[in-house]
Amino acid sequence: MRGELKKKIVKRIKVNLDKCNGCRACEIACSAFHARPKYSSVNPARSRIRVVVDLLNDEYVPIRACDYTKAGCDGRRVYTINGKEYSECSFCGTVCPTRDLFKEPDSGLPLKCDLCEDDPPQKEPLCVQACQLGALIYEEKEEEEVEEEVKPDEMEIGLQSLVDRYGIQKLADSFVRMLQKN
Ligand code: SF4
Ligand code: SF4
């Protein structure tokens, strides 16, 4: 069900593909910022931004993790932009079962870009700060948006992905074992 129209600050990161050189500094900054404790490790496999690199095609596409989907799409299209060919997956931040991008390497839990929400707030998201070439551009704009009713939070999305992977019974058994240990 849809909610009311409300004014809110919409935050975006725009990408200038022509400026990205695939240095992957954005991946390093994101994974360090989201390490627990903060900055205690660097592991791009845990980053919520990944750079799709095709060296032969001179193709570098930074994409951020967005929603988790239970099934992959049927899109296998190819786009040609300024003479370069890009696969549809190069632009898609969806965490889907048909590829390993944006999944925690150990648990398989989906990762999602949170725009580096922090308290106190960062002046700009960490990936934008790390990008010395200006390929990532941060924008804040006031816009009218239809307020969604309750959205699943990050924990629910993570639990749902575990249910999809192992089944609810196995997950419930694991919870019971954990409760008994604690
Ligand atoms: S830091 Fe900037 S230039 Fe480097 S890979 Fe990321 S987006 Fe591209
Ligand atoms: S905005 Fe923050 S969480 Fe999102 S990809 Fe950039 S560094 Fe990672």
Molecular structure report:
The chain has helices spanning 25-33, 126-130, 154-166, 168-181; strands at residues 2-15, 49-54, 59-64, 78-81, 84-87, 136-148. It is of the alpha+beta class and 182 residues long. The protein has two domains: 2-149, Alpha-Beta Plaits; 152-182, no CATH class. Strand 2 and strand 3 (59-64) form a beta hairpin. It starts with a strand and ends with a helix. The model has no long low-confidence stretch (mean pLDDT 89). The structure holds iron/sulfur cluster (2 copies).
Shape: globular
What order do the helices and strands follow? Answer: EHEEEEHEHH
The count of β-strands is 6
Distinct ligand kinds: iron/sulfur cluster
Just give the CATH class of the largest domain: Alpha Beta
Distance between the termini: 39 Å
Radius of gyration: 18 Å
Q: pLDDT below 50 for ≥5 consecutive residues: which ranges?
A: none
Based on the coordinates given, report the CATH architecture of the largest domain.
2-Layer Sandwich
On the 0 to 100 scale, the average pLDDT is: 89
> Number of helix segments?
4
Largest sheet: 2 strands, antiparallel
User: Strand-residue fraction?
Assistant: 25-35%
- The chain-level structural class is alpha+beta
Percent helix, as a range, is 10-25%
- The third-level CATH topology of the largest domain is Alpha-Beta Plaits
List the domain count as a whole number: 2
What is the topology, as strand order, of the major beta sheet?
1-6
